[in-house]
Amino acid sequence: MKTRVAVISIILEDLASVEPLNAILSQYREGIIGRMGLPYKEKKVNIICIAVDAPEDEINAMTGKIGRLHGVSAKTNYSNIIS
After folding, report:
1. Contact 71, 14 (CB under 8 A)
2. For the chain, which domains are there?
3. Are 51 and 34 in contact (CB under 8 A)?
4. What is the pTM of this model?
């Protein structure tokens, strides 16, 4: 199956969504290359970047599930690398 390299950018504004977010990321852990989280305490938000290499359908499904969480927004930026 062909995979794509992408970055999912997540803004988390509701701390109650941390556990459901981590559950989703755990569900898709096979395609996750790495993760970086930055707490921005002054603005009361968390900024998370997830690097992935997975089938495009899985990336879209993960981003959709994340974006449906309360107080969470997610956007995906795809590279042109398909393997």
Report:
1. yes
2. 4-82 (3.30.70.1150)
3. yes
4. 0.93
